[in-house]
Amino acid sequence: KLSKRLQAVADLVKSDSRLLDVGSDHAYLPTYLVQQEKIDFAIAGEVVKGPYQIAKNHVAEQNLQDKIEVRLANGLAAFEEGDNISSIVIAGMGGLLISEILEAGKEKLSQVEQLILQPNNHEESLRSWLVAHDFVISSEKILLEAGKIYEIIVAEHGTSELNETELEFGPYLSQEKSEVFRKKWNKELSTLNKILDRLPEKHEKRAEVQAKKEKIEGVLQ
Ligand code: SAM
Fold it and tell me: Pocket around ligand 1: residues whose beta carbon is below 6 Å from it?
């Protein structure tokens, strides 16, 4: 059984896609999707030898070697044009690392239809990267698991313009304003309040923190 987070990622992968899972760790995600018969080909990419070996063993134990190829590779170097990859998952990493992985292999993305990204932070930088490279965000999810809040961003080729608020809070998430979304940003508000409590009356930083608070309050209204 997958974690709630990985299950939400799995649910967003298009049926019958040819999948690359970058940083697959134990290859749980591709194993699940193939066993559910949602897809019948995946590459599990791993840059670190330990997890690569574990993934390889796991795939062999499940007898899925003919459907899941485990490859030791950095980011998008795990696939070639001939693999006809149509969906790429990059999950469980920082948003900056995800952007770097996409940037390093961006010329290989033209054949790829769908990106399913689950950054652990820096969602704003990742959204900016996507928009700047002609990807449009087609859906977003936010979820709570074991006290942690995760965002998932799905993107496809296309152009769009996102304003500052949409980049930071998510074009869909900021419209939907789910309970988890409110929880995330209320937490951020209380962090900012604590910062204000500690800053002296006339400190130069107060205005900046105050402006951040107002922005969040505006979105949460
Ligand atoms: N994707 C899984 C998930 O969401 O549960 C595993 C997440 S795990 C925290 C991150 C994995 O990404 C690690 O196994 C790490 O070795 C791998 N990784 C980090 N940078 C990578 C890169 N540039 N290319 C491939 N794998 C990478």
Answer: 6, 22-25, 45-48, 51, 74-75, 91-93, 101
Å from CA of 186 to ligand 1 middle = 29
* Beta bridge mates, 70: 44
For the chain, how many structural domains are there in total?
2
**Structural domain includes residue 167:** no
> 136 is in which domain, residue-wise?
4-162
**Phi and psi at residue 29, to the nearest 5°:** -65, -55
pLDDT digit string, tens, across residues 22-78: 999 999 999 999 999 999 999 999 999 999 999 999 999 999 999 999 999 999 999
ipTM, two decimals, is 0.99
